[in-house]
Design goal:
- This protein is mainly beta.
- The protein folds into two domains: about 45-200, Copper type II, ascorbate-dependent monooxygenase, N-terminal domain (Jelly Rolls); about 200-365, Sandwich (Jelly Rolls).
- About 5% of the residues lie in helices and about 40% in strands.
- The chain is built from two helices and 22 strands.
- The chain has helices at about 20-25, 360-365, and strands at about 35, 45-50, 60-70, 75-85, 90-100, 110, 135-140, 145-150, 155-160, 165-170, 190-195, 200-210, 210-215, 220-225, 235-240, 245-255, 260-270, 280, 290-300, 305-310, 320-325, 335-340.
- The strands form four sheets. Strands 1, 2, 4, 8, 9, 11, 12, 15, 18, 21 and 22 form an eleven-stranded mixed β-sheet that branches. It has a five-stranded antiparallel β-sheet with strand order 6-3-10-5-7. A four-stranded antiparallel β-sheet has the order 14-19-16-17, with no helix packed on it.
- A hairpin with a 6-residue loop joins β1 and β2.
Length: about 375
């Protein structure tokens, strides 16, 4: 399964961290004496600088991860994300909520293909530890602005949450500015958080595909999943992601009526090459047990070779993120919804039992 995660390696200079910074990483989210107020003024909001610790990437397509341990004696609620990055430096950033980090190092090689990279000089690992809980809670690319969650909505971390660590992953696609060996990077995200209990817990469901795009062809990369948990899901934001071949990405809630007709409600549709921020969903109608979620990426290739779903900018990706909340409940156990993609999986496949497919709408802006 590939999301916005690519292979990377990093030089040993990455790991030259000060004692003070290591102490800050260890202490993690704590109560902040410089709190501000929520948009309604109802509760205090802290601001935690979760940034790369002055790393020096030395090779294009590098991926670095760094962790912060959450104070497990309290429950915190993340209510906003303020990027500290530009697309000139960072191709993308992801925030993972983990039960344990993928490494005990302060920074590590966390690319998809890191273990097979012959130039790798440091410890490698996934963003989250093997066997631990893992979920994406935020994603950023293409100079997207900050995101503030709706009132009384927050990602619960720390006590009584499977998220004990937050891991920042940064993809450095281009590293010309770092070639002098002295320029460093502190890209990252300022986390806005509160100790006030949020009655609406946020979650993210990531829909995506595998597969490949034939040469000189328009291809549809599609996925579908069933909601099998008895919860009421309130969608409020979505985000799309492809590489350069993406033209349109669309997502839908599908509900069948008593006559067996599928009703497709569009959640969002965008050109994926515009700023890849979280946008308000087009429909906030609740998603219920037995509903289905579907996404399509319309890809257009003018290349003379096959383009695979894969780990570099020469490959492709098809991702549709759905951000939602549940009220007085826990978020979905399902965090990811992936299909095998083309030429193996399409909405039109007989086994999907889909009908009334919005073929034109899903591929045209």
């Amino acid at each position: 399964m590939l999301v916005e995660r690519f292979h990377m390696v990093a030089s040993s200079t990455v790991f030259l961290l000060t004692v003070g910074l290591l102490a800050e990483l260890a202490s993690g989210l704590v109560e902040n004496s410089n709190d501000t107020k929520s948009s309604s003024g109802a509760y205090a909001v802290g601001r935690f600088p979760f940034l790369m610790p002055k790393v020096i990437p030395y090779k294009p397509e590098l991926y670095l991860c760094t962790p912060v341990k959450v104070d497990y004696t309290k429950s915190y609620y993340i209510v906003g994300f303020e990027p500290n990055a530009t697309m000139a430096t960072a191709h993308h950033m992801l925030l993972y909520g983990c039960g344990a980090p993928g490494s005990e190092s302060a920074v590590w090689n966390c690319g998809e293909m890191a273990k097979s990279d012959p130039d790798g000089k440091e410890e490698v690992g996934s963003p989250c530890g093997t066997g631990s809980s893992s979920q994406i809670i935020y994603a950023w690319a293409r100079d997207a602005p900050k995101l503030e969650l709706p009132e009384n909505v927050g990602f619960k971390v720390g006590k009584d949450s499977p998220i004990k660590y937050i891991v920042l992953q940064v993809h450095y696609a281009h590293i010309d500015k770092f070639k002098d060996g002295t320029t460093y990077d502190d890209s990252g995200i300022f986390l806005h958080y509160t100790l006030k209990t949020m009655t609406k817990q946020a979650g993210v469901l990531l829909l995506g595909t595998g597969g490949y795009i034939p040469p000189n062809k328009v291809e549809h990369m599609e996925t579908l999943c069933d909601i099998r948990e008895n919860k009421t899901i309130h969608p409020f934001a979505y985000r799309t992601h492809t590489h350069s071949l993406g033209r349109v990405v669309s997502g839908y809630r599908v509900r069948v009526d008593e006559q067996g007709t599928d009703h497709w409600i569009r959640l969002g549709k965008r050109d994926p090459l515009t700023p890849q921020m979280f946008y308000p969903v087009e429909s906030t109608e609740p998603i219920l047990y037995k509903d289905r979620l579907a996404a399509r990426c319309t890809m257009e290739s003018n290349r003379n070779t096959i383009t695979n779903i894969g780990a570099t900018n020469n490959d492709e990706m098809c991702n549709f993120y759905l951000m939602y909340y549940v009220e007085n409940d826990e978020p979905l156990s399902m965090k990811y919804c992936f299909s095998n993609g083309p030429p193996y999986f399409y909405w039109r496949n007989k086994e999907t039992e889909l009908n009334n497919i919005p073929d034109y709408d899903a591929s045209h802006l």
